[in-house]
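In response to the reviewer comment on reproducibility (Comment 2.3), we provide here a single inverse folding case reported in full, input and output, so that an independent group could reproduce the run without further information from us. The structure tokens appear first.
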């Protein structure tokens, strides 16, 4: 059962990535012991290279205690994080899941001081590592 859910969860990010030539982004939320995705609006000025989610949208999810990670895509580069990705991941204290449309692979970044439920990090590792 979990494998199917993991696939669907990953598939929803892949499907979102395939809707656009720019970076897309969203949230991975814990939901009854599993993870689900919720797309977010990329408000960055240069959406070909970076993503930005409105801080109030991030806070709204932080308040629910259900946020496991933030995901975004790399439309024309590999799944490895940029220095900017690493910096933002560490500073937000929220894990990042990066999906590369080019390599069709995922990359999981976990900040040194993650401010999400430890169980969620285990779920992320099972699915995206």
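Designed residues, in position order:
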């Amino acid at each position: 059962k979990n494998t199917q859910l993991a696939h669907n969860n990953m598939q929803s990010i892949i499907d979102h990535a395939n809707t656009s030539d720019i970076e897309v982004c969203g949230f991975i939320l814990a939901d009854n012991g599993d993870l689900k995705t919720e797309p977010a609006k990329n408000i960055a000025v240069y959406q070909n290279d970076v993503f930005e989610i409105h801080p109030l949208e991030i806070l709204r999810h932080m308040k629910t205690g259900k946020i496991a990670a933030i995901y975004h895509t790399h439309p024309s580069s590999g799944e490895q994080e940029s220095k900017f990705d690493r910096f933002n991941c560490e500073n937000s204290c929220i894990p990042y899941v990066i999906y590369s449309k080019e390599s069709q692979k995922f990359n999981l970044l976990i900040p040194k001081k993650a401010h999400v439920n430890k169980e969620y990090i285990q779920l992320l590792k099972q699915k995206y590592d």
